[in-house]
Amino acid sequence: MRPALAxxxxxxxxxxxxxxxxxxxxxxxxxxxxxxxxxxxxxxYMSQFGKFAASLTExxxxxxGRPGPSAADLIPGSLASGDKDGYTFTLAPTPSGYTxxxxxxxxxxxxxxxxYSDQNMIIHQNASGEPAKxxxxxxx
Length: 140
Hints:
Elements: H1 2-49, H2 56-59, H3 77-80, E1 83-84, E2 87-94, E3 97-104, E4 114-118, E5 124-126, E6 137-138
Antiparallel strand pairs: 1-2, 2-3, 3-4, 4-5, 5-6
C-alpha cells in the first residue's frame, strides 16, 4: 500500500509542476500582448503629440479632465502603473525614441523570460535572469 501512495505523491508533484509551468507560460503570453499594446500606444502618441511618451503615465488615463500629453488615455491604468501580471514594466526615453524593459518580479516564479522593446516595435527576449536588450534574441 505504501508504494501506491508514493506513486500518487510523485504523480501529484509532476502535475503541480506542469500546472505551474502552464501558468507561467500563460502569464508570459499576456505580458507579450501588453508589450504590443504599449508599442501601439507609443505609435499613437507619436502621431498625436509629435514625440514618444517618456513614461507609462503619459500613455495612461488622466486623473481628471481630458486626455493630453501628460496622460493620453492610450493604455489602461493597470498597465500605466508599471506593475502587471507578475512583471515590472519600465519605459524610458532615449534620443531616438524609447526603451521598454519588462522583467518578472520574481524570476522563475512569476516568469522565466525578460523582455525588451523599443520604437522599432520588435520584441526581444532573454531566458536567463538578466534583463533582455536590443541584442537579445527576437521573439518569434
